Structure formats: C-alpha cells, structure tokens
TrEMBL record:
<feature type="region of interest" description="Disordered">
    <location>
        <begin position="1263"/>
        <end position="1282"/>
    </location>
</feature>
<keyword id="KW-1133">Transmembrane helix</keyword>
<protein>
    <recommendedName>
        <fullName>VWFA domain-containing protein</fullName>
    </recommendedName>
</protein>
<keyword id="KW-0472">Membrane</keyword>
<dbReference type="GO" id="GO:0005891">
    <property type="term" value="C:voltage-gated calcium channel complex"/>
</dbReference>
<dbReference type="InterPro" id="IPR051173">
    <property type="entry name" value="Ca_channel_alpha-2/delta"/>
</dbReference>
<dbReference type="GO" id="GO:0005245">
    <property type="term" value="F:voltage-gated calcium channel activity"/>
</dbReference>
<keyword id="KW-0812">Transmembrane</keyword>
<feature type="transmembrane region" description="Helical">
    <location>
        <begin position="1130"/>
        <end position="1148"/>
    </location>
</feature>
<dbReference type="InterPro" id="IPR029151">
    <property type="entry name" value="Sensor-like_sf"/>
</dbReference>
Length: 1318
C-alpha cells in the first residue's frame, strides 16, 4: 500500500508486489488453472517488487527521516550511576512525603487519645446511614463520596465509651489530599474494631446489612489479599495451622461460624506467612492430597488463598450424621464416632514438623500457632487428658512449645460448661490440671480461648490472636504489596500504615491507600528513548514496577506478585539477583547473546553487555528498606544523542487536540471524533509531562482552555521567555520537529486518490509526542508507545508492519493499521535497520480495502474454489473472503489461519523453519499464552508437504519488506478432513499438558499454575519465557455533546448512496454493501451501498458496535430518505406527544375515579420485546392507532441509540481476560476465539416501540473453566454482575432494565463488537 496518497496503481503493487500489467498477463496464462503458482511467480520476481516498495511505500518515510536528518544533534552522557542516584532520590522523596502524611495522622490520633482521657471523644457518624445529599461523584474514588466528612464503621458490640477520633481527624485527612494528589482512602482502625474512613461514603453498592459487617474486611482484613491491620501489628513471619471441626456434634449454625472464623484467620495472614487448613471429624480431610497441601504448610499467595477459601466453603457436616438422619445406614452405631481431637493435634504437629525439616529450620526461631476451631465436645471424660498428652509429646519432639488458640463455637440455648473448660485448658496448655508432665514447664506459651456465637464482628474479637507470640508491635510504618483498586476495578494501590500507642499501649492502626501510579511514575516513564531501563522490586524480589507490566493507572486485574527473574531473562541474572537482595548498593555486569529483541539497537557485536546497578531505597522513618531500585544499562558502544535545538520560525500554527476547548475555523466531525481538516493536531501523552500521574488523574482539575493556551504559548516561544507548564525539556524539540510533516499530509490529502479508504495518518515519538491528521480529540490516557502498531514497528525495524484487524474506536468499523519506524537523524550515511528509532509513522485503512485490492488485481480470487488471503507474522488474517462476507454474526476480527484455512494450518506445521508454535507466561493475567510465529525472513515458498488432500493445494510466500504473507488455496472438491481443534467454550487450550509442534490448534491459553508449598511457579512453567508485553487497550473515546455533534458537519463525505456497484462501495469509509435482510440470511431483492449505520457488515438493520444503527425497510430509496431524516428530533416529538397524551389520560382517569381503587402503571411484560407496548390502566393499547404504519405495514422500527454512548468492549478481541459464555456456540468446531459462522449467533433486533431506553448495559457473565487445574483461573478483567441472569443470543449484549416495575424501559438485543484504537 502506498502511504499518504500516492498513485493508486502503486498501492496494488505494494500489497501484491506485482505490476498490474504483468499480473493480468500471468492470470490469463496460469492463475485459472493453477492459482497456487502465484506464490512461485511472486518469489521469482521479489527483487523487482522490492524496488516498487522502496519507490512508493518508503517514500513518505524517507521524507520524514529527511526532516530528522536535517536537525542538529548533540551527544548525551548516559551514566548509569548518575541515573540511579537521581531516580532513587525522586522515589525516596516521594515515598517519604507519603510516610510523613501517615506520621501526621498517627501523631494527631495519639494526641486526641490524651484528650479522650480528659473529655471522651465518642461521637460517631455511621457510614451506612449517610444521606445521599452529602455525597458527590468523584472520579478519583470511583464512587460518590463526601470530602468534608469522616464516617465510621462500628462493630455491633462497640462500647458507647470507646475512643472514636474520626470527626477530629477530618481536617488532617483533607490536608493530606491537598498536599499529595495520589492519596486515596485514609483510615484509623482501633483495637476494638472501630473504623474511621475518609472520605465518607455510604457503600451504596452493597446491601445495608452487609455494610454493617464491613468493619470485618474494610482495610483491616480484606481487599483481596491484604491484611493491613494484622500485618502492621504483627509483621513477623508466622506459621499457622487452622484446624476446623465439622463433626457430627456440630449444628449447621456452628459449622457456618466455624467457616467464618477459619476464613477470617486465613485472611489475616500476609505474603510472608505459611498456612495449612484441614477439616476434622473422626478423620482428617485436606484441601487436596497432592504431597504438598497434605504434607506441609503452604506459602500465602493469591492463588493459595483463593483455593483454601474455596475448600473451607465446600466443607460439609460429617456424612455419617446425614446418613443417619436419612436412615440410610443399617448399623447406626458406626456413625456415633465423635470428633477425634487428639488426631487433629497430631496432624497439625506433623505438618509443622515437615515444614521445618524441609526448610532446615528449628522451631525456636519461628512463630508457630495452631488455631483450633471447634465446639469442644468430648467423647469421654479421659479424652481431655489424651489431647494434652498429645500436645506435650509433640512439643517435646520439636523441642519447642507451640502456641494454641482455641475458638469455641457457641449455639444459643446449648450448654457449654465442659466444652468451654476443655478448650480453655487446651489454649493455656494447662497440663497440671490433667496430671500431664509438660515438655518445657518454663516456656509454655499460653494462648487464649475466643468464644464465637455469630459470624459478625470477627475482626474485633480476633484482632489480637497473634499476641501469643509476645512480640512487641514495632513502632515503624509498613508498606503493602500492590493490589487492585476494588472500588473502581481500575488502577493499583498500596497501603501505608503505622501503629498508634499511648504509654506503650496499642491504640490501633492509622493508614492511607496511595495510587501506585503516582509513587512509581518516574520508573514507569523512565528514559523512554535511550539504552537505560529501570525497575522497582521489594525486598523479596517481587516486581513493583517493570516495563513489561501495564501502566499502574490502567491495570484491570489483580497484579501477580512475580519475581523479577521472570522478566529479566538474561543468563546469569539469578546470581545477580541474590546480590541485589543482599547488598545495599552495587553493580554487576552480564554478557548475553544478541537477540532479535535488541536488533534495533545492536549491530556489530555478537554479544551484548548488560550492567545492573542497584540501590536499597532509604525511606524516611522505616526500619528496613521496602524497595530496591535497579537501573539496567544495555551497552553496545554507541553514544546516545538528542536533538540540539529547533527554531520556531516558519513552523505551521500548532493545533492542540483539545478541539472542544480551542476549536479551529473548520471544526467538524470525523465519524464520531471531533476533528479538523485545517491541520494535524498535537497530542501529548502522560509521559511527556514531568508529573504524569497528575496529568492522568485530573487531581488538579481537568484541562481548561487557559491550560491549553499555556501549552501552545510555551511550545511556540522561540526565545524561551514563557515558563514551562510542566512538560519534560525534550518535548518541545519533538513537537517542533514533527510539525514539519503537517504540510506534507495536507497536500497528500488534497491530491490522494485513497481518501475513500484512509481514515487517519499519524506519527509518534518515543517521548510521547503524537501528531494526527485529520486532527482529532483523543483520550488523555492514550500512550501511543504502548499501542500495538508502535511496538510492531519496533519489532520489525526497516519493515512495513500491519496489525491484525480490529474495531476502530473513532467509528470507522474494522480497520488495519500500517506502521513503520523512523530512524534517528544521520547526515552522512544511509539508514539501516539497526539504527536507533526516534519515531513511528502509521496510517489506518479500512479492512475491506485490502481484499478489494486482492480481487481487483487477482480476479481468480473471486472464483468459488479459489481462496486468496493475506496474513501477518502471527497468522492473523488481514484479507480473506471470510472477513468480508455478510453474515450478520460475530465480529470479523482476530481471525486466525487456523480458523479459516485448517488445511494450510495443519500442513505448514510440517515445514521446518517456516512457523514455530511458542508459549510465554503472562504474569499480568496469570495465563500461559500459546501462539504462532511465522518466519518473515523465509527465502522461498511453502506448498503442500503432506499429500493427504489431493483436491486442495495451497502456496504461501512472504511479502518482502513487510510482516505479511500471501497465500492461495485451490480447492476442487469438498472432502476436507483437516481440522484444528479449539475450545468451544472459551480460550482455554484443550490440553494444557501437551503442546506439539506438528499438532494444529488455535491460539489459546492455559492457567498459570502455582506450587502452593513454595508460592512459586511449577517447575515446567517456570522455564517458560515471559510475555514481553501486552499492548494496551485504549479507553473509551472522549464523548462529544449531542448539541455539538448536531451543529457540525462530517469532515469526509463518503456519498455511499451514489456508489452503484459492490466494488465501488467495498472498503469505502463508512460504507457497506447491503446484501441481506435483517435476518442475516435472506438476500435483498435489490442490493445497494449504504452507511454502516444502516447496513453494518452487509446486513440491513444489523446492530453496530457503536449502538447507532438505524432500522427501516429494505428499500434503498427509503434508506436514503431515512438517512436524510434527523432521527433524534422526530423521535423526540413522538415521545413528547406520547407522554403528554398518556399523562392526560392518567390525570383524567384519576380525577374521575378518585374514590375508586387506585390505578398503577404496569411494567414491561415478559414479551416486551415483541413490539407491543406496556398497557397503561389496561387501555393504553388504543393509542397505537396514533402511530403511522411503516412501509412494511407494521410500526416503524426505530431504536433510539445514544450516539455519545461509548461502544461496548467485545469479548471477541483476542485478549487474555476473555472467557466465552458457556451457552455460546462456536464456528463448526474451528475456533472459539471469536463466535463465528454459527446461525445461533445471528444478531436479532427487537421491534420495540420508541420508549425510553435504559442506558444500563449488561454483559452476560462469562464462565471460567479450569481444565487440568485444581485451582480457579484468575477472574476476568471486566467484572460482570453475577446476580443478573438472562437468556440471550450468544455474542450479544443485553440492555437490562434495572427496575422491572418501571414503564419507561425496554429490553433490546445488541450485538457486541470490539472497540480499539491507537
């Protein structure tokens, strides 16, 4: 394809690499009979093809590089130690500022307690009862809050005289938010369970009764895997065995309490602890018998916590009791066996002994606890002595006194005198009472017994269960590992906490949650261009921030606590890591072989020198350093350079992308984006600013017109008189350098013959500066360097790269992005693929344009038995007949060769060196990704190797200078036996324990399994490479107000109605060739070209991914009439008339029948989607006569879609968080990555009357399978409401009315499509 508007005939040559004349002549002679020989011809003529490529496709690139070549450069001194100390200073200062905020809360709380002793501070404000009038929506918190109040979560047994400083802390909390914008929740948790929270909220997203229980989990013990209170009070590593009774003597209520207590203890543990949980009756039941869980204690990890919680939930009462109650046991004496308490302690000590032995540790240096949760009922009077003898004997074997805490389960109305005494003696290890000789009389650890009669208020009862270790609470702050923000399900937080004391007495814990994105922003956006990299780890070696991870602000799933060695896969790094964790500072060098990953930087040496320099950060007031900063230098002997200066004079006027604030004279709508054709627009990503988090979070308020004017004034200032508004110094140079491309783009737009197919052009620098034409309003969360088109250009420097098709966020439908790299300026020598890359140029083109080029230049591709296709280097199809056929079913994106061409997919795996099946560990979503990698350097063609399908032949050849491959399949019969097995439910691989190079399977994923005992990956999975990165999926587009859109014309007029042939319509922006009726099956009597709103994917009235479809009859004239009719005003008028008339009838009837039974508006009946309107006082149906019938004799079928509604994110995008619904059908067995080719997935649009449509959207919950796994896979990134269940057409989203009693909602089916952007 020719970039930026060159002659049309060259564009076909770029895709096919053949001249039009030669191609036609070749087709006449060869293609009809033997179309597979095309690949041979392509291979033989590849040299002339390269000439064509250089003349056309690379010409705009050379012009852009000429701009950078003409600039003046200066060498940059890049010293790894200077960079380390500068970055460490920034991190230490920022972390110290947050610690100071916690310290301020701590000092204020301790001062308030002294006042409390003189004048009690006991007033409370219940969070759960806060009125809505006090709350206001806040984007930073993800819900409605009050920043002028502190509210309280109170335990049921809270004393009315308990210390409650909440109201008096509000002013301190408010000051902290102003001082540090990354501060989120702030709190104080007392030893009695009183919880103060700022800002105040009423937790309206959960029922009131559950809100009353939040003090058990809010910050104190909760939020996925945090144990904030316990970890602050008892930070030492612990070994805990939880013994939960479920014997025949327990009532169902007692079993419920036992589960709650066990889960509370489990949740109170942190990542440094080890745990075992088993159920006890007359025998022992472990979570699983795998030689690990039933053998020793497990490390605490998110996976083990989830699994053990599930085990606790699944524990049932002893089966024998159930059998007796059902009279299913003939010999009921066999079911009288009571709980064997001695066996429970024997098993607990066995697990402890095995754990210590394998770790080569002794019990004296460990904190070991047995938590015994039981009713305490003894089978005989002598059993108590047997239990104490067991404890004494086992303590002697360990040469240590293990602590025991007991939790007695109390059922109201049942006597507990003897049970309570027994469990009290066990906790205190009262050997003397039972005449048992203790193993070490002087060092007996006396535990405590806790009586529990209800699952409520457990945190207040169990907050001091680890006091048995008699270790003083350290008066130092604690910092947690990163965790997902549970409020917004977006972004990652960290907790900073500090205990409060009064004369050595523990009062509670103060803390605040901070945004990780703010703390590590300097690491996230560190040195984006040069040869230095930085990452942050904790003192265990777990990654806090690394370039392979998503930006913290945009994380959607709980981050996996991963050792940095999984990301730094340099030979010998393990030994360096041991030094990093041990030595406060230092450096080490390694040598690694040159790899393709570094081919853009290293050219001459066969090896690469890598040096690591590190420093343990010295955080203010912390006992030990919580973080270690590492700077990595990739040394190739080259000298980094940067642009010296660029003069402003002669530069075109800058247009900032915020056209909603500073519009141009010719502002227009480019499909769904606010745009301008006057010039390219400038976009600055967060990395272009010195404080990226403040720019993203809008903590200082949203961008204003004054701020934008300040940006432009600074960038246009050639004398450096205007103060920098917060940008990095190098940004101004990048802005001015890229501004020279503006005139080239505007000229190409005027003269180009490809305007019908090119959506937008853009260039992005490594510093985060981006220009786009047409200029358009973009989301501020966009980072072009994280997008797939940018990263693919870096992966293949010197080549033109194509992305797999995806749905354009700006409204263009399915598109493909073409991109290539621009090298750093060089005056005296030609550029090569190993030169440093300074920017990437890209262009978006409609998907169907590629297939149009294919069939225009290879007419044989239109024959029924011949299929031509183009795919990328991972096997995803760019052009194929199956991508453009009107089916009305699933979205046509991320379709793989294994889906559409199973014959070729099976056979090419036998060609050594052509394709490799690979896998990598995805630590961001806990999956193992399996994918294909095709060799773009192949010097030859690929054809049938296994002669099993004699009536089907194929040939595939690489397209030189790109990451694409061209293929032709000639099929003369329908006896295909090839098949690529894929899951029909989700993206899980069918066999996660096997991957053979010669076996065809669709790209898929497996859960990343953990070893519960070690907390590390299983050995076989630990050897897998890490997935380098996952390109970011961009946020929803910036909404444009309805009144603004209605007053602006479209920038580009496609004139679809004037295109009379399919070929003339194909690939044109915003145009579709209408071929099928609304059922997606019946052909139209007369086909025609129309807007995609009218005929998306070739199906009349099909739901669009943007919810802006228009419904009408199949008459093209009617389509044009409808297109010219403004839907909003007409529908609004009808709605107004309807409401006025309905209100009049209601008032009249109410006036006439005031003394009669009151009348009510009925809700939508179950068949509301059938097109009949809900009755109003059982007489509203008469109003239907007022509606004009449509052309087909029925009512006009209009769905009032809100144009500003963001397009739904489709689960069919090949992202790792997607799981298909269990009731969804597949594509005849080929693939379930995308729901395709199944009649059940046809979109159906209901014939609903124009009532008010609810904007609440619901996507059906997606099932998660766990084949070959004993644990649950991670939850999907997009949370679904588990309480709403509806039958739906697979592949569609359902608009669900939240109030079935309301008459102003309608249920409608809408097909889901994937939305993506740059």
């Amino acid at each position: 394809m020719c970039f930026y508007g060159h002659d049309f005939r060259f564009d076909a040559q770029i895709v096919l690499h053949l001249s039009v004349e030669k191609l036609k002549l070749w087709l006449l002679r060869n293609a009809v009979q033997f179309p597979e020989t095309y690949a041979t011809y392509l291979y033989e003529n590849k040299q002339s093809s390269k000439v064509t490529l250089n003349q056309c496709l690379l010409l705009p690139k050379f012009r852009a590089e000429g701009i950078f070549d003409s600039l003046s450069y200066t060498a940059v001194k890049e010293d790894v130690f200077d960079a380390l100390h500068e970055l460490a200073e920034k991190l230490q200062v920022k972390a110290g500022q947050y610690i100071n905020l916690v310290h301020t809360i701590k000092l204020t709380t301790e001062t308030l307690f002294h006042q409390h002793l003189q004048q009690p501070l006991t007033l409370s404000r219940d969070c759960c009862s806060l009125p809505l009038s006090e709350l206001k929506w806040n984007e930073l918190y993800g819900r409605s809050v009050s920043q002028r109040l502190t509210c309280d979560l109170l335990p049921h047994n809270a004393s009315p005289f308990a210390f409650n400083p909440g109201r008096n802390l509000t002013e301190v909390f408010q000051h902290n938010v102003v001082y540090k914008s990354g501060t989120k929740w702030q709190y104080f948790i007392s030893t009695g369970g009183i919880h103060n929270e700022f800002p105040a909220q009423n937790f309206d997203h959960i029922p009131y009764a559950h809100c009353r229980e939040l003090q058990d989990s809010r910050h104190s013990i909760g939020h996925y895997d945090r144990a904030v209170y316990i970890k602050t009070v008892n930070p030492q590593p612990k070994h805990v065995v939880i013994v939960m009774e479920h014997g025949i003597s327990l009532s169902q209520n007692q079993l419920t309490i036992a589960k709650a207590v066990s889960k509370q203890i489990l949740l109170s543990l942190n990542e440094d602890d080890h745990v075992s949980v088993f159920a006890l009756s007359s025998s022992v039941t472990h979570a699983r018998d795998d030689g690990c869980v039933n053998h020793k204690l497990c490390s605490i990890s998110p996976e083990s916590r989830v699994y053990l919680n599930k085990f606790i939930d699944d524990v049932a009462k002893d089966k024998c009791e159930i059998a007796v109650s059902l009279s299913d046991v003939s010999d009921k004496s066999l079911c009288t066996a009571s709980t064997n308490h001695s066996l429970g302690f024997q098993e607990a000590f066995r697990l402890i002994s095995n754990t210590l032995a394998e770790a080569n540790k002794t019990a004296e240096n460990e904190s070991i606890l047995i938590a015994y949760v039981s009713r305490g009922l003894l089978s005989s009077l002598v059993e108590g002595k047997a239990v104490l003898e067991t404890i004494s004997t086992q303590n002697a074997r360990l040469n240590y006194s293990v602590g025991v805490n007991t939790f007695i389960l109390i059922d109201d109305g049942k006597p507990i005198i003897y049970e309570k005494g027994f469990l009290q003696d066990v906790a205190e290890q009262n050997f003397e009472k039972y005449s048992v000789k203790p193993s070490h009389p002087s060092v007996i650890k006396k535990g405590k017994m806790v009586a529990v009669s209800t699952p409520s208020d457990l945190s207040s009862k169990m907050g001091n269960i680890f006091e048995i270790f008699q270790q003083p609470t350290p008066n130092f702050p604690q910092i947690s590992l990163p965790f997902l923000d549970q409020e917004t399900q977006s972004g990652v937080l960290m907790s900073m906490t500090w205990p409060c004391f009064e004369s050595g007495r523990l009062l509670g814990v103060v803390g605040l949650d901070i945004h990780l994105g703010d703390l590590v922003e300097d690491v996230t956006y560190f040195n984006q261009k040069q040869n230095l990299e930085a990452f942050l780890i904790d003192h265990h070696g777990y990654v806090v921030m690394h370039k392979s991870l998503p930006r913290p602000y945009l994380m959607r799933v709980q981050p996996m606590h991963t050792e940095v060695s999984h990301f730094e896969q340099v030979p010998g790094f393990e030994s360096v890591l041991r030094r990093i964790l041990k030595e406060p500072s230092g450096n080490a060098s390694l040598v690694m072989p040159r790899s393709e990953q570094h081919s853009a930087v290293f050219k001459l040496s066969p090896t690469i020198n890598v040096m690591y320099a590190w420093k343990h950060l010295d955080i203010l007031k912390m006992e030990h350093s919580p973080f270690i900063l590492v700077v990595k230098s990739i040394q190739d002997g080259s000298t980094p350079r940067e642009i010296r200066s660029v003069h402003v004079s002669g530069q075109p006027q800058l247009v900032y992308h915020r056209l909603d604030l500073l519009p141009t004279d010719n502002t227009c709508m480019h499909l769904k984006q606010l745009a301008t054709m006057d010039a390219s627009s400038l976009f600055l990503s967060a990395g272009a600013f010195q404080l990226p988090f403040e720019h993203l979070s809008q903590t200082l308020g949203p961008e204003t017109k004054l701020m934008v004017q300040g940006y432009l004034a600074y960038l246009n200032d050639n004398l450096n008189l205007i103060r920098n508004p917060g940008m990095k110094p190098e940004i101004k140079k990048d802005v001015l350098a890229t501004s020279r491309i503006n005139s080239e783009w505007t000229q190409q737009y005027v003269h180009s013959q490809l305007n019908d197919y090119i959506i937008r052009r853009y260039v992005a620098t490594s510093n985060g500066v981006m220009r786009m034409f047409p200029g358009a309003l973009l989301s501020k969360t966009l980072d072009p360097t994280k997008r797939e088109w940018y990263q693919r250009a870096h992966e293949y420097p010197g080549k033109v790269t194509f992305t797999a098709p995806y749905l354009d966020q700006g409204g263009a439908g399915y598109i493909v992005t073409i991109s290539h790299a621009i090298y750093e300026g060089k005056h005296s020598a030609p550029h090569g693929p190993h030169d440093p890359i300074t920017a990437v140029m890209g262009m978006d083109v409609t998907l169907k344009f590629f297939y149009k080029l294919l069939i225009e230049q290879l007419s044989a591709c239109q024959q029924e038995h011949i299929r031509c296709f183009v795919m990328d280097d991972r096997g995803y199809l760019i052009a194929h007949r199956g991508l453009i056929e009107p089916t009305g079913r699933a979205p046509m994106e991320q379709k793989h060769i294994t889906h559409k061409e199973p014959l070729a997919a099976n056979d090419i795996l036998n060609h050594e060196g052509f394709v490799t099946k690979k896998l990598c560990n995805g630590y961001t979503d806990r999956t193992i990704q399996r994918f294909y990698q095709f060799n773009t350097s192949l010097d030859g063609i690929v054809t049938n190797l296994v002669h099993g399908e004699h009536c089907a032949k194929y040939q595939i050849a690489p397209i030189p200078g790109t990451n694409l491959f061209m293929g032709v399949v000639n099929e003369t019969c329908h006896m295909m036996r090839a098949f690529c097995p894929c899951s029909m439910i989700d993206r899980l691989c069918l066999n996660c324990h096997r991957m053979e190079q010669s076996e065809c399977e669709c790209p898929c994923e497996c859960p990343l399994q953990m070893d519960f005992c070690t907390g590390q990956l299983l050995d076989e999975e630990n050897r897998n490479p890490s997935c380098v990165h996952f390109p970011e999926e961009e946020e929803q587009p910036v909404p444009v107000r309805q009144e603004v859109r209605e007053n602006l014309a479209q920038c580009y007029q496609s004139n679809c109605e004037h295109r009379k042939t399919k070929m003339d319509c194909m690939g044109v922006l915003d145009c579709e060739w209408c071929e099928l009726h609304t059922d997606g099956v019946t052909p139209l009597d007369k086909t025609y070209c129309a807007s995609q709103r009218i005929c998306f994917a070739g199906v009349l009235g099909a739901a669009t991914p943007y919810n802006d479809q228009v419904h009408f009859s199949s008459d093209p004239e009617g389509a044009e009439a409808m297109k010219s009719t403004p839907v909003g005003p007409v529908a609004g008028g009808i709605m107004g008339c309807f409401l006025v008339l309905a209100l009049g009838i209601y008032c009249y009837r109410n006036h006439v029948h005031r003394s009669a039974q009151p009348h009510y508006m009925a809700g939508l009946p179950p068949d509301a989607t059938s097109g009949r309107r809900t009755s109003l006082d059982n007489e509203l149906e008469e109003l239907e006569s007022l509606d004009e019938p449509g052309p087909a004799g029925g009512h006009t079928n209009i769905i009032l879609a809100s144009f500003e509604n963001p397009a739904n994110i489709s689960p069919y995008r090949m992202n790792t968080s997607y799981r298909r619904p269990t009731n969804a059908e597949s594509d005849l067995g080929y693939s379930t990555m995308t729901p395709q080719d199944g009649d059940s997935e046809q979109a159906s649009t209901t014939c609903a009357e124009p009532l008010i449509i609810s904007r609440d959207r619901y996507r059906p919950p997606l099932s998660v399978s766990s084949r070959g796994s004993g644990i649950l896979p991670p939850p999907p990134a997009n949370k679904r409401d588990p309480h709403v269940m509806m039958e739906n057409v697979p592949g569609q989203t359902i608009l669900v009315a939240t109030d079935t009693a309301s008459p102003n909602r309608v249920i409608a089916n809408v097909q889901v499509h994937m939305v993506d952007s740059h």
